[in-house]
Amino acid sequence: MKSIRGRLGKAADEVVSYSASIAYDRRLYHYDIAGSIAHARMLARQKIIAAKEVQAIVGGLKEIGAEIERGDFPFKPEMEDIHMNIESRLAEKIGEAAGKLHTARSRNDQVALDLRIFIKDIIRQTVGRIRKMQAALLDLAGDNRRVVMAGYTHLQPAQPVLFAHHLLAYFEMLERDAGRFEDAYRRADVMPLGSGALAGVPYPVDRQSVADELGFGRISANSLDAVADRDFVIEFQAAASICMMHLSRLAEELVLWSSAEFDFIEIDAAYTTGSSLMPQKKNPDTAELARGKTGRVYGNLMAILTVMKGLPLAYNRDMQEDKEGLFDTADTLLATLGIMADTLGSLKVKAKNTGRAVARGYMLATDLADYLVKKGEPFRKAHDIVSRLVGYAVVKGKTFDRLTLAEYRRFSRRFDKDVYSVNVASALTARDVPGGTAPKQVAKALASAKRKLGKASRQGQKGGAV
Amino acid sequence: MKSIRGRLGKAADEVVSYSASIAYDRRLYHYDIAGSIAHARMLARQKIIAAKEVQAIVGGLKEIGAEIERGDFPFKPEMEDIHMNIESRLAEKIGEAAGKLHTARSRNDQVALDLRIFIKDIIRQTVGRIRKMQAALLDLAGDNRRVVMAGYTHLQPAQPVLFAHHLLAYFEMLERDAGRFEDAYRRADVMPLGSGALAGVPYPVDRQSVADELGFGRISANSLDAVADRDFVIEFQAAASICMMHLSRLAEELVLWSSAEFDFIEIDAAYTTGSSLMPQKKNPDTAELARGKTGRVYGNLMAILTVMKGLPLAYNRDMQEDKEGLFDTADTLLATLGIMADTLGSLKVKAKNTGRAVARGYMLATDLADYLVKKGEPFRKAHDIVSRLVGYAVVKGKTFDRLTLAEYRRFSRRFDKDVYSVNVASALTARDVPGGTAPKQVAKALASAKRKLGKASRQGQKGGAV
Amino acid sequence: MKSIRGRLGKAADEVVSYSASIAYDRRLYHYDIAGSIAHARMLARQKIIAAKEVQAIVGGLKEIGAEIERGDFPFKPEMEDIHMNIESRLAEKIGEAAGKLHTARSRNDQVALDLRIFIKDIIRQTVGRIRKMQAALLDLAGDNRRVVMAGYTHLQPAQPVLFAHHLLAYFEMLERDAGRFEDAYRRADVMPLGSGALAGVPYPVDRQSVADELGFGRISANSLDAVADRDFVIEFQAAASICMMHLSRLAEELVLWSSAEFDFIEIDAAYTTGSSLMPQKKNPDTAELARGKTGRVYGNLMAILTVMKGLPLAYNRDMQEDKEGLFDTADTLLATLGIMADTLGSLKVKAKNTGRAVARGYMLATDLADYLVKKGEPFRKAHDIVSRLVGYAVVKGKTFDRLTLAEYRRFSRRFDKDVYSVNVASALTARDVPGGTAPKQVAKALASAKRKLGKASRQGQKGGAV
Amino acid sequence: MKSIRGRLGKAADEVVSYSASIAYDRRLYHYDIAGSIAHARMLARQKIIAAKEVQAIVGGLKEIGAEIERGDFPFKPEMEDIHMNIESRLAEKIGEAAGKLHTARSRNDQVALDLRIFIKDIIRQTVGRIRKMQAALLDLAGDNRRVVMAGYTHLQPAQPVLFAHHLLAYFEMLERDAGRFEDAYRRADVMPLGSGALAGVPYPVDRQSVADELGFGRISANSLDAVADRDFVIEFQAAASICMMHLSRLAEELVLWSSAEFDFIEIDAAYTTGSSLMPQKKNPDTAELARGKTGRVYGNLMAILTVMKGLPLAYNRDMQEDKEGLFDTADTLLATLGIMADTLGSLKVKAKNTGRAVARGYMLATDLADYLVKKGEPFRKAHDIVSRLVGYAVVKGKTFDRLTLAEYRRFSRRFDKDVYSVNVASALTARDVPGGTAPKQVAKALASAKRKLGKASRQGQKGGAV
Fold it and tell me: pTM for this one?
């Protein structure tokens, strides 16, 4: 096997550095070796190569795996990628038999295989981290189940909500994320080996047995598609982008809440840093970084979509660009899920401050309108009445509970003494619908979330599909 | 109900034109009316408003629906969006009772509802179009089942394949697309009404019954999430981007194949156009446009991801930007699926030309290598031998079948007379693995694809989930 | 001239609706007519067609222009685009001579011309709006030149700054934006007519005279490039994306500042809206929309970059996708610049609140460190000392001015009575470097900004290049 | 100076690995040291710190620079970034004086400085590579100045062009690229030091002298903007995206031209590679990779635009995400320009094949139409006549030169014997307008391009602005 350097002469170094992928695809070594072993064993079973040779191949590959683990594998850029590095090392170890490993296989289906095992592995890890982060949300919600906070729309205080209710919104987002990753897993769980370069291989291979040995759900149905397809990379990146979007929203809230103006939470010093110039600062760095890293994940999605657009079948070298962005997204997403879960774990909620925010505004305005509706006023008219009442209160500098009944009645004769029983507690309690913020509903939602999470975790541990 | 123009005074026009969405969200009218009717009926059932009033409301809404269908609904930009336009028209029609429709509802959950019904509808249509395009592929494959073509990698002729095999690769891509849309459907199929502005509504609503009436699979679990979530928009856009990517690849191939140099196909004149300057041109415009329109679909995905990044809970006005890109993507995708299916339907394959391409190159090189492997040569060495043989043949200007046995044997003593039985037919037949291009396998794959498609279409017609 | 419908038969409607651009490119009519008139006049001057015919052509085109202005031009989708609509209408009006207008011209160079005039026009408008927005910033800064505000990093109060200083940061951003648009203008200012379909025209045209008549700076140097190039569209979109990014930052600040927690500003009711459900809300809608619309501008950039990637020379139909995104970006950017300028114009700054924020934190910590540095302490050590001092003060619940000298000296013997002269005013005054927030420097910066703006506006009015 | 690990305790490793940038920002070391030296010298000149201390600082920094060059600098992840690594190493070397280097400086303005010097350096290199690639284009054009090729639109042969003319289109694209990079350079050429953390520094610094020493054109005008601005990163990325788009178009053409079907060129073996499975393949890998790498450059642009959207002033930690994408884009662009120039340098043009393509189609159709126009037929009518003539010729299987005069005259009585003088040579010669493909014009364009390039290169060597 000649190295690229040997074949090319003078322009070699430039071309090698432009086209070699060994610097980053080496992290696939484990999957590549597992795939090669399964392939070799099948070749023996099918009597395509001799059992003794396969024994040598498998032994050699295992040694190589150990070398890489130990860090003393001699990586060679001129061998371009991890596949050729391993194969050429195998030849050094076992001689001519190494040349038989590539029987009934092409680099095209080999790369597709490795990448699919990688994605499946990463999805499993991702879902695991999502579950941990959901657990962190439930813990935090559980620890603060009585904390009241302003719910916002347009970043304006809108209606009182339980802090736990707010956190449960993120639980739901992550639940959908997990679902998306699981769906992506199913579609990635397809074994491409046997597709050869593009047309299928001219050997009596047993594709299903390779799939079984490697834990794949099924084999690919079309050889051209099998080597030309990178949907599984894109679908993972799209799911990751949505998940990072969710994390960026939570990150934004952590930044807001830890500002001096909101002052709703304190993030543990482990997850904030000081300033090189301003000793008083306690910057919510992990949250900011999580928010910022959303950009790179979006960018990686856009990159692979761009790469694949308009490529004729089957494999084109452009597709080598599938890996770095994928690795970067996988690393970023896993790290961000981890750090956000830990940041949440470290959070102290300042219930006095979140409560004060609720008291301040006219957050009970909707409830006053609903009060009138229940007394018979059509909703739109009730809304208009309270709208004018708020205007009046602002001018007078009074909160609702400081208005006299006479003042109330100036706006509607339907107001009566019981208007004073409209308060934060009543507002919360009133929202007693499934998904609402009434304490009873939130308790139910928390319990249900815990059950779901427990079930998901048990399935994960049993090593279910995902 | 005051219009925005009334409230604002001088800056009104500018602000209205900046913020009104009626120009594009009017297409949601049908969903909005259906949602309002279901909501009103539930309010009556729950005795939240009187049955007689609900009767008036429902009657009025139906009239409004008819007005819009007929094109004589008086749309008012200053009413901002479709929801307010309908509600204010309802007030004109039925008076005060109209003001009760918005009881136990907010524009936030109303918008979320309308958009979810829209997405579900569009996904159903999309999957329908995908099925039609798959059918067009199978028809074309079936009509050309004996046509041989060069299979390409790196746009270099690589190995012979059946043209039908090549088309089946696209069948597989579309199959995954359908799966992704169906998964997105499941996650969109969640009824948000009852979430109010953000915290749930303070009325004894029956959310499940509204879901049932509107054909939703389930109700949302958290009110904040229900109004702040646009995952279903993004997931649809991501699935659409991948699908357009597939279509762009096929479009690229149609452009290549209809070039004078490839000349593999003829696209019907209905789908090509001439030039304003060059009378001889027959440009594959629909394919080029399909390829180009991939850009806008990617752009719309990037846009909505950008919009949602870092938004604190719950609703923010930025989210109004969820619609135009979604509508554009939906329209573009549906139209492109339709036009590509029709373009395929119009295709004539020039089997003589696709065959010539196979004869030309050294496409049987892999098969010669495999020939040697079967005679006992390790694959890598066989590959090297044939590589040198190709070099020799190129210099001599001979195709494989013109080389003498002596010439063959100069490269390996393993070559024998039976080397001449390596030909295109044998190359095809040899790839007799599941997913391979052997005629037997392709016939099997075609049959299986037809079965799958028939089953999917029957489910679609029965009005299954998707 | 046959319409597309005539040529195509049954598939016509679908193809027309997929490929016709008349729905959006009609807005180019003015540029198209101007270009055609200049072209026709040149043809007459060069004696390529007869003067009398040109007279008829020019007359007809002017009539058509008037028809379109009046709204009674009969647009026909089956004529596909604005160019063919105008040309076919011209034929109705003046007969056979109309057929001569396209002599020495192709739709390819014609489209490129129209789009370049459009871009130049839009850039002029954009720069005009940027100048108005800069003026709004300077007015607001001037009206509030004594207002002190917390300067933030990581959304944590960091050091006191003048509010005017903060606004001037946006002046600088917009200044760079204007520069980018002006540079884009220079590169767009190239006349492509005479390039024909791709190879140049076989007539003795006078390209320079057409450029002169249409006000172009120069003519294109290569015919293939002239029809295949859309750099000017992309460069505009890129500059627009950066500008929208700036506006999104300001928008974010307006949203933050108008939150109940910050409460730094009040935006006029004209630029906020209420809630359908919550009568007390005053949502900063224009700012939120401006922030949100950044997404679509980014998306349009990504779309056109995707479209142009990997297109072989010269024109491909994909390039028809250059317009809608461009128009959308142009409209969005112009509207956003306008609405943000007006929103700024309506702003009331709550100086008491911005001042309170400064008092609250330990914003003078840096100044205390600098105090120690000036007394001889190395910076890093001074930073550490003050860091510990802040920790102490937080625990004691004291602001800096409430610490006793003894307490100060517990952390460093260098502290002396003059430490009490470190205050907000001294902190501001001390930053007396060019670009710093010292009142003297800010006054200078304001004056300089006004001079720059005046000069730019005068140039704009004189009708300079941009 | 405590390391982050010291401050954080248990969560340290995770946080360090999430937030440390030393793995990639170490490549800024050279710029960081240069900036620190200039800053220190100014501090001495302004008597802010003692000359002796500055001597120690400068000496220490130079030693550190040498250590890094030699590869024996002890990088510490827990020191987070290159700035802190250098500063802490300086403290080890020179003790307490090291603590004074950060006087009148913040990490915020320091980072901005380093990144600006980096960008300026990269732009200089980029423009240099663009010039080399332009030279490669001119060499190739010059060597093949008589080669005729089909010019394409819609990938359909349209009109004959000179191959050199086609190449000159890319010269023009690169010329605009260079212009964009030079404009970006001017806007990056602004010295931010003295802006401190955000408000300016409270020391009598001499900002202009630092700018002069570091070769900056001017100093920043607003301290908040100076630390919050990353326009220069985005503008570079946008210019790089457009440049990569150009390269992707050329790459696409190289892939097409080296296909068996076009067979217009041969790329040297150094820039193609074989297949692991198919010994006959010669894949245009560098061109494919260049086309593919466009995706990552687009993605990096989208990433940084996303990061910066909606960030309030001034510095936020999200902005740390400015570097990796920038480095990746810079490396990718420089490498791609280099490899494409070299690939071009290795190209052999198969003039016989490019000529055959011209003969094949009906590429002279436009010229026949123009022939009729010159005989008095209006263009549109001439176009219709030739259109029918082509239809006839196709059916008869004749090329234009094989049609009899009688056949010609069946379509128009204006055809005469001189119609046979319409040929490829006449078609080329006729396009004798500036920018056209007439040999005379192309020769002129080549000469002019050479002059421009020579001038640009001389300016570059003289070390002009860019």
Answer: 0.95
